[in-house]
Amino acid sequence: xxxxxxxxxxxxxxxxxxxxxxxxxxxxxxxxxxxxxxxxxxxxxxxxxxxxxxxxxxxxxxxxxxxxxxxxxxxxxxxxxxxxxxxxxxxxxxxxxxxxxxxxxxxxxxxxxxxxxxxxxxxxxxxxxxxxxxxxxxxxxxxxxxxxxxxxxxxxxxxxxxxxxxxxxxxxxxxxxxxxx
Length: 181
Description:
With 181 residues, this protein is α/β, with parallel strands linked by helices. The chain has helices at residues 44-54, 75-92, 109-125, 143-156; strands at residues 28-32, 38-43, 57-62, 69-73, 98-103, 128-134, 161-170, 173-180. It folds into 2 domains: 21-83, Translation initiation factor 3 (IF-3), N-terminal domain (Ubiquitin-like (UB roll), Roll); 98-180, Translation Initiation Factor IF3, CATH 3.30.110.10.
């Protein structure tokens, strides 16, 4: 007894996935066979025996229905199809990223145009763009230069994006967020 270790507070894990075969706790179930044909409402033990005759499993498809809907299908195939469906849904979803473009109030026109072109490229891809203007030292006294630069960005980017978060000060920097149209 001394060599057996047992953790009293061990976490018990629930079985994952839908209930199958003897784990189905409803007395009666609506059964669909492997061909997709509705067999009607059957006793759970009778439904399990029919699934065993075919060499397949009885899997609970809609547990919240009254009575629960079960299908006679192979458990491995069912899990494989569910995984495929989840992967397909994940592939279709678009992840929006926030790209940041940093400027200074004294940024030259060529650099400004280069960064604006990058911002428009990000917006056409579907990403949001965060413009940050950093002020150093005495430049903070000339915050109007930052406001003018942000106004210019808003005008130049009208065709590809719209302002989500209007220009505001955050410490020693001014921030504006633009989202795609």
